[in-house]
Each structure stands twice: as structure tokens, then as C-alpha cells.
Amino acid sequence: MLPQLPARLKSLSIPLRIQVTNGAVFDLSPNPAVTLTIKDPSLFNELPSATLDRLGQAYVEQRMDIDGLMPDVIRIGTALSDALNEMQSGLNSTLKAHDKATDAAAISYHYDLSNEFYQLWLDPEMVYSCAYFETGQEDLATAQLAKLRHLCRKLRLQPGDKLLDVGCGWGGLARVAAREFGADVFGITLSRAQLEWAQARNAAEGLTDKIHMELMDYRDLPRDGRFDKVVSVGMFEHVGYANLPLYFQTLFAAVRPGGVVLNHGITARHVDGRAVGHGGGEFIERYVFPHGELPHVSLAIAEMSEAGLEIVDVESLRMHYARTLDLWSERLEGNLDKAAGLVSEQALRIWRLYLPGCAYAFRQNWVNLHQILSVKPYDNGENDLPWSRHYLYK
């Protein structure tokens, strides 16, 4: 007997085709743009309560296949979830454990996947964070280089400055800071694969006398004010709510009086931690960033201020990150055959959903991205910043 379309789905008008492997086909509207092929018959009856997390989990675990352009997949999947589920609410009150071993394992899970895989869709500098677009028409490499220079200008880097790069990744920022601004950089990461790749690249460019990188937890950083400037890009999302005070206290202690601290990271939509996205966050927690927690920008600012840092500039790059993720997704989709030879089928399915899904989330204002510039004042309250911000836009 052929399955019947569940009643909750019959009234929907979404450009979606639901196809079952036994041959049954159901179009929820004319001219469907996306086809879900149900491989596990039990999944068919679960669809009326589908959230983004459940849909994504079913795809990752190969209970269904998806045909269609990935931006359409995300848009239509969200429309389906919107129609079937009321907005989630309630506080995100459960704090996750963030000891050194847990954080190291989480970082390794995400970043040690495969350097070659990341090379397929990142820019030549391997920058895995939001790019910076002046017009929105720049290619990925141009926009990422613009972001790195934008950060260095915000830091007012000068030749000989001692820069601490917390969560240095594959070293793109460190290389620009050393090569173009003359800084002496100390970078730390918890990813062994990133560290090895970055050290090889630094050596190939003759920058080993300007850049030193180590496998180190931020909690082990020196707290003697030895650095002139501190930058952290895409790092505090992994710190956890409970450890934000310690994290910013550590950055405060690492920089000299008068020094600058710049934090660049993804921030939450709601001040009180209410969930958005019909399970999108749960999917990311399950498959992409285990133990990740996104603070609201107000919480980040509060904790930075409590640590003794003076906030001087805050810039949102939400739409810049949406564009960055679009470009990453397009590059991955154009290299699927190569990607399939570098990571497991499950990993590839995760990333095919994650990149366009995050682009959609930023575009819908479910999440944001903020650069927060701060200074460590001198004992008399003074700082070294110029009166205007003209230096940002040279």
C-alpha cells in the first residue's frame, strides 16, 4: 500500500516534492524547486513535526536525500519548519562544560577534519571567519584580505608591536600583521592540523622570525602584560557563558596598559538566550560546533567592561558574514567530487547543509557578528587612541 500524505502537510503551499523510494510522489505546490527522497519509510510519518534539526539529522544520517540548489534547500526547509512548528522560546539556561580537555576535543573535531577539505572552499590565506566587503561584489580572496587589513588598522599595528592572536587558525591574520604591518605575532590554537599547516606556510613565506605559534589553551596564556595588542577572531564562541569572565580577564592581563584588545565573534539574537531557527542551533551543536555557545553582544560588552577593558568601537558585520558563507557554499558545491575524496559522506552532508544554513541565519538576523574594540586604560584613565577614527579607512 502506498503511503498517504499526512494531513498537516496537505494544506501547505511550499515548492517542495516529497518522494518515497517505493514510487509515491507528493508535490506541495506546482513546480517544486526541491525534492526530498525518503529512504527510511518511518521518516515519512515524522515529517509533520519536522524541525530544522530533525530534517538536517535525517539528511546527515542518510534517511533521506535532497535534490536542489542548496540555498533553495535551506529556504524551503525553513518554510516547512515554520509552517509546522511554533517559534521556540524559553531561556537557554543550561551551561555547558568548558574545561581544557572538552574544549580541545571540540576544536579538534571541527578544525582537524582535513586541511585539504578546507582548502577547497576557503580563500588562499585559509581565513575561516567573516570577510569584509566594501561593495558586496568582491571575490572571496579580496574580501578576506580586506578583513585582515581592517582588523590590523583597528588595532593600529605598528612595526615592532607585539601582537597576541588568540585562536590564530591557519595564520592568515598573523601573516598579514607581520608582512604588511611589521608586527611580531604570537599565535595560539588548539588545532594541531591548523598549527602544522600555518607553521609550514609561515616558513615558506620567510616569516618565522616574525611569527611564533603554539598549541595552547587561552587559560595558559601569560598574564604579565607583555603584549601591545591582542586580537581574537572566531574564538569566544567556543569559550562558553560560564568562562567569559575568565576569558576577558585573561586578555586584559595579557596586554600592557594603553594596549588594545579586539574581539571578533558571532553573537546571539536575543539578550535572554531564547532559541531561534526551529532547531538550527541544535543541528550545529550536534554536528558542527559541539559545546559552542553564542553570547549576546551586550553580554560580551558587559564582561569585557567588568574585566577592566574600555569599549571604544562596536561594528556589526552580519550581512558580510551572510555573503561570506554564500561564497564558501558556492565553492564547496563546485568541488563536491574532490570533497568526497577527502572527508566521509556524513561530514560532507553536514557541511553542505551548514554553510548555506548559516548564510540564511545571518541574513534573517537569527545571529550576528560583532567586532568589539577596547583599550586597557592607563592608571590615570588615559589611552593612546587618536581623537578620530580616520585611520580605519585609509
From TrEMBL:
<keyword id="KW-0808">Transferase</keyword>
<keyword id="KW-0949">S-adenosyl-L-methionine</keyword>
<keyword id="KW-0443">Lipid metabolism</keyword>
<dbReference type="GO" id="GO:0032259">
    <property type="term" value="P:methylation"/>
</dbReference>
<dbReference type="Pfam" id="PF02353">
    <property type="entry name" value="CMAS"/>
</dbReference>
<keyword id="KW-0489">Methyltransferase</keyword>
<feature type="active site">
    <location>
        <position position="358"/>
    </location>
</feature>
<dbReference type="InterPro" id="IPR050723">
    <property type="entry name" value="CFA/CMAS"/>
</dbReference>
<dbReference type="GO" id="GO:0008168">
    <property type="term" value="F:methyltransferase activity"/>
</dbReference>
<dbReference type="InterPro" id="IPR003333">
    <property type="entry name" value="CMAS"/>
</dbReference>
<dbReference type="InterPro" id="IPR029063">
    <property type="entry name" value="SAM-dependent_MTases_sf"/>
</dbReference>
<dbReference type="GO" id="GO:0008610">
    <property type="term" value="P:lipid biosynthetic process"/>
</dbReference>
<protein>
    <submittedName>
        <fullName>Cyclopropane-fatty-acyl-phospholipid synthase</fullName>
    </submittedName>
</protein>
<dbReference type="InterPro" id="IPR048027">
    <property type="entry name" value="CfaB-like"/>
</dbReference>
<comment type="similarity">
    <text>Belongs to the CFA/CMAS family.</text>
</comment>
